[in-house]
Amino acid sequence: MKEKIEEIISYVKEKIETIEKSSDCQNLRIETLGKNGKITELFRFMKEVPANEKQALGQLLNTAKQQVESIISAKETFLQSKELEEKLMSEKIDVTLDLNPDEVGALHPVTIDFMRMAEILTGMGFSQIDGPEIEYDKYNFELVNIPADSPSRDMQDSLYITNSILLRTQTSNTQPRAMEKIKPPFKVFSFGRVFRKDDIDATHTPAFHQLEGIYIDKKVSLADLKHDLSLILKKYLGESTKTKFRASYFPFTEPSVEVDAECNVCKGKGCAACNGAGQYEILGAGMIHPHVLELNGIDPNEYSGYAFGFGFDRFPKMRYKIPNAKVMFENDVRFIRQFK
Ligand code: PHE
Hints:
The protein has a 7-stranded mixed β-sheet, sandwiched between helices. A 3-stranded antiparallel β-sheet has the order 2-4-3. A hairpin with a 4-residue loop joins strand 3 (159-160) and strand 4. The termini are far apart. The chain folds into 2 domains: 2-91; 109-339, BirA Bifunctional Protein, domain 2 (2-Layer Sandwich). The chain has helices at residues 2-18, 22-33, 38-44, 51-91, 109-123, 137-140, 174-181, 222-237, 290-295, 314-319, 333-336, and strands at 127-128, 134-136, 159-160, 165-167, 186-195, 207-217, 243-250, 253-262, 279-288, 304-311. The mean pLDDT is 91. The radius of gyration is 38 Å and the shape is elongated. The protein is an alpha+beta fold. Bound molecules: phenylalanine. Phenylalanine is lined by residues 170, 172, 212, 250, 253, 284-286, 307-309.
């Protein structure tokens, strides 16, 4: 029996030298200590051994069992840590890879232009507020006088997430949001992305930027709107840029206006940038509809207000002569790098 045990132990010692993967250690463990393993089989002889030898043999076998286990687990631990090290080395991420210390990021052209506009507006007493891009139907439509059955909903083909939640189609969602939070008088603006179901082409993208301005106080009039907007546009587009106010319609303003600006590329002659029109539409505005004030808990007999909404991608497009609207939304660093 002793010889048998020694034979097995030297077999294990020999075999362990040839093992290169930690998973193979388990195979050797099964082969020796498993249910039908070589050592386990020796334990079965115990039955046949005379009673007075049983204890000595039992001790012998148990020692052998422990010895085999410790040979195997020593090698197993060694291989496991080696394998882990190799794995870590192979998966190592070199965070300094391709780092060019001279490379500084650039702001997106829309951000650059928005920052200019924000400076003008804050200089005129407006403060910035935010509105969510994922919005309740209530704020995007209901509370700005566009009820469920209104044909005006067709003007803004919406991307719905659930029956009552959509990607906002306009920054005008910040009108009810502002009226809910702030007591008049207030003067605020809000900027961000809006979304409409649109196929992508040179002038259309399903996401675009708008800037909303809202002023509510006692006795705000159309004259204030015209004065303030003219000033904003002069500062923003330059003193010499001609602008034109014309009557329009929005469900949440009455009266409503739209403002066109002379194309600053061709100075009104008509060119590719303005689709030959010599001018381009830059914003919608108007006196906030008394019903909208009422819907949002403001007494229209006491307060009045104006609101305006710029489509904000056109300015950087014109200024930097960007021929395609799509590149504005792709976040391609090759495009953005040009605006340093
Ligand atoms: N929300 C309008 C649009 O998306 C623009 C607008 C804003 C008009 C505020 C009037 C007042 O077309």
